[in-house]
Amino acid sequence: MRFALVWTEAASGLRRNLSMVVSVILVTFISLTFVGAAILMQMQIGQMKGYWYDRAQVAVYMCTATDSSDTCTGQDATKQQIDAVKKELASPALAKFIKKSTFEDHDAVYAEFKKQFKDNPVADYVTPDLLNQTFWINLKDPNQSAVIVESVSNLPGVQSVTDQRQYLDQIFSMLNAASFTAIAIAVVMLVAAALLIATTIRLSAFSRRRELAIMRLVGASNRFIQTPFILEGVFAAVIGSVLAAVATWGIVKFFVQGYLEANAGVVMNFVGTGNAIAVAPILIIAGIVVAAVASNIAISRYLRV
């Protein structure tokens, strides 16, 4: 009987403030959708790091005849210099770090260049001798790239040694910035949702001020009076949270799996609907907590006035 009375009061409040309840649902939905997108983006970044970092290579670029850098003498790397690099990479000191090492001469590098820039006019002006002969090195542990860089950089005929992970770090930094931006927007939206919930509860309490006064006169406890108002906020937030969870699932299903996987042009592990389902409870719990706290603070302050 007591629960039925509490729920009846909560339902009455929802009907009286329907427009405000709809506003709470929409703000909660939008803010938690941002939260879900940010979480999924972090999951995607984690998967991409695991995939690409394992495939990142160390590139040893040999000198060309047109190279005027400090480490080159304006002539193409000789066979003896190339053999010296091969010998160094095969030495016991470095071999234990290397999973695989391949060498591309001018013709092989030129063929790859033509393939990558086939639609670019610059490809018509590049000749094989302008491109660096290159050693491509896959490491057992990509974090050990500094060992290769230090050991090979000063060998004669070597123009430069580049760890491809530095380019990946720049990409992931931009992705992380986008993810943190989404989180910041979500936090602002959640604050707005909390304020809107608090305002809705206070308006609902004000519209029933005579009923509340009577309840206090007959000895109703503050907790009994507060509970229906808290349920109002939680009910609206739960609907918004569920909508956000469904939207997050839809983004993964129809955009990530339906569009990105078909048009990405690279083989990659994208987040799946399983990840979206795992995020759903987080969104619902977050919505309930924000609504419950905001509602409780609002009605507690109102009753103290």
UniProtKB/TrEMBL annotation:
Q: Which residues form the ABC3 transporter permease C-terminal domain?
A: 184-303
* Topology with respect to the bilayer: Multi-pass membrane protein
Q: Which residues form the FtsX extracellular domain?
A: 57-161
Pfam families in the record, alphabetically?
FtsX (PF02687), FtsX_ECD (PF18075)
* Keywords on record: Cell cycle, Cell division, Cell membrane, Membrane, Transmembrane, Transmembrane helix
Q: Does the keyword Membrane apply?
A: yes
Subcellular location, in the record's words? Cell membrane
The organism's superkingdom is given as Bacteria
Quaternary structure, from the entry? Forms a membrane-associated complex with FtsE.
What does this protein do, in the record's words?
Answer: Part of the ABC transporter FtsEX involved in cellular division.
- Please give the family membership noted in the entry: Belongs to the ABC-4 integral membrane protein family. FtsX subfamily.
In Swiss-Prot or TrEMBL terms, this protein is called Cell division protein FtsX
Organism encoding this protein: Gryllotalpicola daejeonensis
